Amino acid sequence: MEVELRDYLQGVILNTYRSNGFQRVNTPIIEEAENLDKSEGGENLNLIFKILKRGDKLTKALENQQYDDLADLGLRYDLTLPLSRYYANNRAKLMLPFKCIQIDKVYRAERPQKGRLREFVQCDIDIIGTDSIYAEVELIHTTAKALLALGIANFNVKINDRRILKSILLGVGFEEEQLASVSIIFDKYDKIGTDGVRRELEEKGYSKSAIDGLINILNQGRITLEMAKELCDHVEAMNDLDSIMKEVEKLSKDQYRVTFDISLVRGQGYYTGTIFEIESADFKGSIAGGGRYDHLIGKFLNETVPAVGFSIGFERIFSIMMEKGAVIPNQKKKVVVLFETSQFEEANVKAEELRKEYDVALYEKPKKVGKFLNRLKEQGYSEYFICGKSEGVEHID
Amino acid sequence: MEVELRDYLQGVILNTYRSNGFQRVNTPIIEEAENLDKSEGGENLNLIFKILKRGDKLTKALENQQYDDLADLGLRYDLTLPLSRYYANNRAKLMLPFKCIQIDKVYRAERPQKGRLREFVQCDIDIIGTDSIYAEVELIHTTAKALLALGIANFNVKINDRRILKSILLGVGFEEEQLASVSIIFDKYDKIGTDGVRRELEEKGYSKSAIDGLINILNQGRITLEMAKELCDHVEAMNDLDSIMKEVEKLSKDQYRVTFDISLVRGQGYYTGTIFEIESADFKGSIAGGGRYDHLIGKFLNETVPAVGFSIGFERIFSIMMEKGAVIPNQKKKVVVLFETSQFEEANVKAEELRKEYDVALYEKPKKVGKFLNRLKEQGYSEYFICGKSEGVEHID
């Protein structure tokens, strides 16, 4: 039953994406290790499952004690890297800008525990080959439409821009090479608060005035877009963000909100501009995230290709829908036809006739029919038919 | 476009399976290495992608020079092993017999080349928990229905039984411990002929009288079921095969054939009884294969659980359908709406209206509309609409 609900929910998301003119692409889960290594995946790079070399290559690496070089392949930790490589290899035959869907599995070497799976599904849409702000607008609105189609309401799209973050951090006195590390600490602001941020920055030994500058900003309460304009000297980034938010607000028709959030960082190193994340008021934690990664594809090509993507964390959606007790609408009802060995042919004719309307399973008549019917009910079967008995489908209740 | 055709074909197979009362299960592609090792996968065991240990475990294995023990996990090489483990872990809540579907990716460390992929899709149905011959009958007929639904006709289900093979090989004088190796050679009979089989058996140094005995049988031409009854003293196996073939013939209504083939071996070590394979007269090589594996699940449980499965090789199906120039029927037509920056809102309203009927993509108006429309056509778009121009959808031709 869980698999059926998963399939149904993924179908709703896929259909929304397709209806909005995105097309599905299929990328392999196995990637060259060197591609994964250069992907700037942030902390996720520590969670890559590496595939052992085989045959002579392995023998050679072991003989030469090249213990850092025992793997030549790895499992993807997200869908953005394989898509970037796919685009680099196939762009000659793709429509530009390329608007694509990936609903597929990714892998992270986490210790299996609640909420941390080593295999999980992401639902991504990406637009590659344009730096137009309408790419961001379309991704945000289409992702929101998928959530609305799933019956998830009351959510908020948080938005920020790495360029704004950079400008503000440089503005208060941090240095260029400190930004990655400062951002990682700043990313935890929601969890550890102002004091936590201060403590972790101090532990790193950064300049007191830079730390004070940042904390002063945080102490002003929620930073509005207007306030950010005062702090940030990247005019283009501020204008882009302003336009994206205005356009999304028009499309949203109050079905969801979009808010500027200066503390939104996102972990991946590859983001270059806009970043976004969706939070539901009804459920803790983020349910979708994404951003612009204008330099990732360039690692596989001799040119820069602008790109932006938005990813729904499917496992989160699935657990939300399970909590809500979601049911699959308009399901083809399931019937079982029970037969005794001698009645196999007759049972098949009956089953085939019923299949015009139902999904029909054939079972040899069990010793304990009652117990068997209970089990059927648990599995979502609603009706049964016993061969040789009076004609007609009977309801299981 | 290829991805869409793949999705469509997999959908046809899935719907056929579901309509026949099978239910989808989801198993992980990562398995414990020790489970893969004990799976009796035959030559496929040499093609397992192994995942490098991580952290302390890896350090320890390297320090102790345990070079055979650098991997703790691996990628599944088929869907039968993960299903067996899944069944062993979950049987308390499953309906018995368990009739299930897996349409999913498997991995083999082949050198990438035409017809040999390292990642490919298999479409399996299995029935676990019954030794009834109706399980075989149902699997064969349901798999055949899926092929017929895809428009593949003119195919033949070849069937044999490992127990018959064993009885005949022992009968001519091979020894129990030689059977696995003799079977591997015999499996190549279609390719290398009688002379090839004789040569390879002689190279292994097997008894001349056993080799002569086997070659004598092969020299009789096609061995019918009646002839096999003379050679095989496993009465139960012969009767089972006879019944399965008769029941399948009744269901097939001459839409496909089922024939006994003494030379059918199948590579996997885990088969214990019936084995089958589907060949199409129109395309070389097999398109589906399967058999009974009554001892595999027992490796994960303290009891023997009978099981039988049938797997369609999806990549083969896909290339057949591409050759045939298959098209997706009743596809929701695709339209593109072109807009200039200032018309974004208007374009969105238009797109949303068209989405009631079509899949609709939004694109900013390109400099060269003609060239862009050509590209759209290649991607399966059939109509377009330019914002600001006269109302109405125009056909792309």
Order of helices and strands of chain A: HEEHEHEHEEHEHHHHHHEEEEHEHEHEE
Mean pLDDT of chain A: 91
E-strand count of chain A: 15
Work out the strand percent of chain A.
Answer: 15-25%
Largest interface: A-B, 64 and 64 residues
Q: State Rg of chain A.
A: 26 Å
Structural class by secondary-structure content of chain A: alpha/beta
Ranges of chain A with pLDDT <50 over ≥5 residues? Answer: none
Number of helices of chain A: 14
Largest sheet of chain A: 8 strands, mixed
Identify the strand order in the major beta sheet of chain A: 1-5-6-11-10-9-7-8
- The coarse overall form of chain A would be globular
Oligomerization status of the protein chains:
homodimer
Distance between the termini of chain A: 18 Å
Indicate the percent of residues in helices of chain A: 40-55%
Task: Furnish the topology, listing elements before pairings.
Two copies of one chain form a homodimer.
Chain A: H1 2-19, E1 23-24, E2 30-32, H2 33-37, E3 50-52, H3 55-63, E4 71-75, H4 80-90, E5 98-107, E6 119-128, H5 133-149, E7 155-161, H6 162-172, H7 179-186, H8 189-203, H9 208-218, H10 225-231, H11 235-252, E8 257-260, E9 274-280, E10 286-292, E11 307-313, H12 314-323, E12 334-339, H13 344-354, E13 359-364, H14 369-378, E14 383-386, E15 394-395
Parallel strand pairs in A: 1-5, 7-8, 12-13, 12-14
Antiparallel strand pairs in A: 2-4, 3-4, 5-6, 6-11, 7-9, 9-10, 10-11, 14-15
